[in-house]
Specification:
The chain is mainly α. The chain contains 11 helices and 2 strands; from the N terminus they run H-H-H-H-H-H-H-H-H-H-H-E-E. Pathway: Cofactor biosynthesis; ubiquinone biosynthesis.
Length: 250
């Protein structure tokens, strides 16, 4: 095809990516997030393949990630209209997860995406996407932790979100009632673990038992507080006398 015959492309990279994604979703149900789906999306959206590759260098994989990102964005827009401060923490977490699942309700696209990200070469991208969802939720809920809690909260929530999505994929109950019951149980489990951790911290005897591990965990800082990612190790101050300086775990 000559340059003069190519369709006129207008819009930002994000807009072009959205057009490709909208065009691809129909084909995903049949061919998954594949090269064939990506090529068909280019044709259906009237976007030159060279332009599409510039926006999505990895083709359908980048479109699948864009699909996940769209769900996060819709969730955040919906959460921004809620008075989250008026809700209990467990209700805020459950509401965020529910909004995230309801934001993108195409089960086949999600199922095909789960298969794509289960491949060894794509697993890191899939894990990063789910971690990003958990981070957005905690940020929306006002989490300001800057130590190991930043990680444990997001890791726990990522597990709850991931398991809830898998349950939802196989749920045929009316209005997904079984999914929301499953989600509530998982959220309660996470909050119970947090309650146990708080009890350990407040117990003088257990606090001494866990003083060493807690001190080590306290050397880790969340990425928002440092330049590194996913965190960094804070070295103790080097002694000046030449002798090892005992470190008080408390």
């Amino acid at each position: 095809m000559s340059d003069t015959a190519r369709p006129e492309i207008e819009g930002t990279e994000a807009e072009i990516r959205d057009r490709l994604l909208d065009a691809a979703l129909f084909g995903v149900a049949f061919d998954g997030w594949s090269d064939g789906t990506f090529r068909a999306a280019c044709a259906d959206a009237g976007i030159d393949p060279a332009v599409a590759r510039a926006v999505c260098p990895r083709g359908a994989l980048d479109l699948a990630l864009a699909y996940h990102e769209r769900g996060d964005r819709l969730m955040m827009e919906r959460l921004s209209r809620e008075d989250l401060a008026a809700l209990r923490l467990r209700d805020r977490i459950a509401l965020a997860i529910r909004y995230r699942i309801e934001a993108i309700d195409d089960k086949e696209a999600v199922r095909r995406g789960s298969a794509l990200f289960s491949l060894p070469g794509n697993a890191a991208d899939g894990a990063r996407a789910i971690w990003g969802t958990a981070d957005r939720i905690w940020t929306a809920l006002g989490d300001h932790s800057d130590d190991i809690n930043w990680y444990t909260k997001r890791a726990s929530l990522a597990g709850v979100y991931g398991s809830t999505v898998l349950f939802w994929l196989g749920d045929d109950s009316e209005n997904c009632a079984a999914t929301w019951e499953f989600m509530d149980r998982r959220v309660a489990d996470v909050l119970n673990l947090e309650k146990v951790r708080a009890q350990v911290t407040g117990n003088p005897v257990l606090k001494r038992v866990f003083a060493g591990p807690n001190w080590l965990a306290g050397r880790i800082r969340a990425p928002g507080k440092t330049r590194g990612f996913p965190g960094s190790w804070e070295q103790p101050v080097a002694p000046t006398s030449g002798r090892p300086t005992p470190v008080d775990p408390d």
